[in-house]
Structures are given as structure tokens and as C-alpha cells.
Design brief:
This protein is 48% helix and 12% strand. By secondary structure, it is α+β, with helices and mostly antiparallel strands.
Length: 218
């Protein structure tokens, strides 16, 4: 939480510095600065509150809601605006349950968990993200897209979990080939990860972050 407090302090300092630019700052300008700082706090609080959710309530996410998440995703920064991604959304129980049955046959121990319903952490909606390997920055770009989606979901009261192993299963296991084909990815694209999306049925606590991995270099 120290990092969070530092961020809030930085926003406060920024507002003071903006005000110091002129001794005759009008009330309108001051209100605008206050609004900017308040908005900044909301953004930071949203980032710091996001958790990976692995339990979801048993009702669907509306497609209008998902569409807004996707708009946030595709507006992520990306190298030379190549947009080297292909995004597919699956909320069809037939698809989710079908590929889960394949998963269960190959991973019976994981499927034996009493709370197991599907291989996407029981989420009702799954967003698949594939990259174009011919673009050198495609994995970075796709990562930025996913973070936009997950932060937007957090702001809208949704839970998400980024799943690499589930995507790898569909990408690489021959028995799941028909489900990979159903995603209708452009030729040459590879599944990188998928994002489970749903209404959270848990509130995970924050896990410790190792601040020593971050250093300023003089």
C-alpha cells in the first residue's frame, strides 16, 4: 500500500504545482484542477483494487457490457498502430462446456475439484486474445490490450482472470483442435491467453508485491 499512498501524494503535488503557476488562478481553473486530481485518484484506486477473480456468480455478462470492454481493449497503445491482435469472445455455454469436457478427460484431477464447472474458472464469458507473430511487438501490444480490458472490467464491477494455460490447451492439444478452429483466427495467429469475465463471487485480498524489483538509476 506504500506505492498507492505515494501515487496519491503525487497527484496532490501535481495539483499544487498546477496552482502555483499563477497567483491569479480563477475559481474555474481551480475547479478544473480539482476534477483532474479526483479523476486521477479514481483511476489509481481502480488499478490498485483489481484482483484476479477465480469464482463467479452464475449469471451472464451482457454483450453490450462486453462490447465496451472490447472498445477499451482495442484502444490500447500498440507499435505503429499495427494492432497485431485478433480478439474472440465466447459466451456460448455449448462451446465452453464442450471444450471443458475435453479438458476434463485429459486433466481428471483438476476436474475432480467440487467447485469445478468449466476450465475458465467457471466464468460465463471468455475473451480470447491471439497475436500476429510477424509483428515484433505483438506480444507486448496484446498484453496492453488485455490490461485495458481487465481494468475496464474492474471499473464496471466485473471480475477477470488472465489465463495462459487454458489458451495453451486449446492452442496445442490435438483433442481441442475443433474448438481452436471455431475461433476462426486469421492465418498465422497464435492464441496467447484468454480472459475469464464475470460477476465476482469472491473478494480476494491483495498479494504482496516485491518493491525491491523496482529501482531508480542515476
Amino acid at each position: 500500500m506504500k506505492l498507492y499512498k505515494l501515487m496519491i501524494m503525487a497527484l496532490g503535488i501535481a495539483s499544487v504545482m498546477t496552482g502555483c503557476g499563477s497567483a491569479t488562478t480563477s475559481q474555474g481553473e481551480a475547479a478544473s484542477t480539482a476534477t483532474t486530481v479526483d479523476t486521477g485518484r479514481v483511476v489509481i484506486e481502480n488499478i490498485m483494487a483489481r484482483r484476479s477473480v477465480r469464482q463467479y456468480k452464475d449469471y451472464p455478462v451482457g454483450r453490450d457490457t462486453v462490447q465496451l470492454l472490447l472498445e477499451c481493449g482495442i484502444n490500447a497503445p500498440n507499435g505503429m498502430n499495427k494492432q497485431p491482435w485478433a480478439v474472440r469472445v465466447v459466451d456460448n455455454p455449448e462451446y465452453i462446456n464442450g471444450v471443458t469436457e475435453v479438458f476434463k478427460k485429459i486433466n481428471p484431477k483438476m476436474a475432480a475439484d467440487p467447485g469445478f464447472k468449466n476450465m475458465f474458472r467457471n466464468a460465463p464469458t471468455v475473451i480470447f486474445v491471439a497475436n500476429d507473430p510477424t509483428s515484433s511487438s505483438s506480444q507486448i501490444d496484446c498484453g496492453l490490450l488485455g490490461e485495458n480490458i481487465m481494468l475496464a472490467a474492474q471499473a464496471m464491477g466485473l471480475g477477470t482472470c488472465c489465463l495462459g494455460s487454458s489458451a495453451a490447451f486449446i492452442q496445442n492439444v490435438p483433442e481441442a483442435a475443433e474448438y481452436l478452429e471455431k475461433l476462426d483466427l486469421p492465418e498465422g495467429h497464435k492464441l496467447l491467453y484468454c480472459i475469464a469475465v464475470g460477476y465476482p463471487d469472491e473478494a480476494p485480498a491483495a498479494k504482496e508485491r516485491d518493491a525491491s524489483k523496482v529501482k531508480f538509476i542515476d
